[in-house]
């Protein structure tokens, strides 16, 4: 009986080691560090905004230019990490501190993907979900740090977001939800702390009229006040809220409609 128990334990141990090794091998090979981001991520549904160009008119890269292993890269702002194949998105700071450029409706610079297919969707639909695995390696030292994900109101309705997910240099994560279409009245909810340099997953969902957020699968339902389920779209990236650099590495992006 004792021999059988030892053999069973040994078998389970060997199996566990094999599965763990297989997991890390799969993780390491899942992203190709020799490809541009479009070779590792489905960027056919996104366009990219960079923190360069002309003031009020940042450079935008189309989905067709982003796609494929030889697609667009800019090694200052948007590129594949040579070690693990992560998608790196960097912002150097603010217009005053770095000379970066913004859109007409923002004071802040960004390297950010904007959903384009579909270009917008109804929050009353059954499924609108974005799941992102990432690590923030450098966060701006302002109170809010940088926005790592958004649900934005369609441009035909408003220039404001539904909600913005913030991560600061202390590892504090919060979400701000606008109360009205005119904006400028975000209500902030603290979502916890993930130390800088730690890989985590977030989820934003606006389905069946309910706005939800999760950090590492800890879900909260949020009030949407007077927004009344406006047409919306997802954004993911690095939307810097201050004047010092920020740097995020993304390992996966999942969109479900």
UniProtKB/TrEMBL annotation:
GO terms for molecular function: lyase activity. It comes from the Eukaryota. The keyword Lyase applies. Residues 41-247 form the Alginate lyase domain. Keywords: Lyase, Signal. InterPro entries: Alginate_lyase_2, ConA-like_dom_sf. Pfam families: Alginate_lyase2. The keyword Lyase applies. Residues 1-30 form the signal peptide. SUPFAM superfamilies: Concanavalin A-like lectins/glucanases (SSF49899). This is Family 7 polysaccharide lyase. It comes from Gymnopus androsaceus JB14. The lineage of its organism: Eukaryota, Fungi, Dikarya, Basidiomycota, Agaricomycotina.
């Amino acid at each position: 009986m004792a021999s059988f128990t030892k053999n069973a334990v040994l078998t389970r141990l060997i199996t566990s080691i094999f599965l763990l090794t297989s997991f890390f091998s799969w993780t390491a090979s899942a992203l190709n560090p020799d490809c541009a981001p479009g070779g590792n991520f489905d960027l056919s549904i996104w366009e990219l905004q960079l923190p360069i160009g002309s003031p009020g008119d940042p450079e935008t890269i189309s989905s067709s230019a982003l796609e494929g292993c030889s697609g667009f890269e800019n090694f200052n702002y948007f590129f594949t990490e040579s070690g693990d194949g992560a998608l790196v998105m960097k912002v150097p700071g603010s217009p005053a501190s770095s000379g970066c450029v913004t859109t007409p409706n923002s004071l802040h610079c960004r390297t950010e993907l904007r959903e384009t297919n579909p270009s917008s969707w109804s929050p009353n639909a059954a499924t609108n979900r974005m799941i992102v695995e990432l690590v923030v390696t450098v966060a701006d030292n302002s109170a809010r740090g940088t926005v790592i994900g958004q649900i934005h109101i369609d441009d035909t309705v408003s220039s404001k977001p539904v909600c913005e997910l913030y991560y600061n240099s202390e590892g504090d994560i919060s979400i701000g939800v606008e109360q009205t279409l005119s904006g400028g009245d975000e209500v902030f909810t603290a979502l916890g702390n993930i130390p800088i340099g730690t890989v985590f997953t977030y989820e934003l969902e606006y389905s069946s009229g309910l706005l939800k957020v999760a950090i590492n699968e800890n879900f909260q339902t949020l009030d949407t006040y007077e927004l009344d389920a406006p047409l919306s779209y997802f954004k993911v990236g690095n939307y810097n809220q201050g004047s010092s650099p920020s740097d995020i590495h993304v390992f996966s992006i999942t969109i479900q409609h």
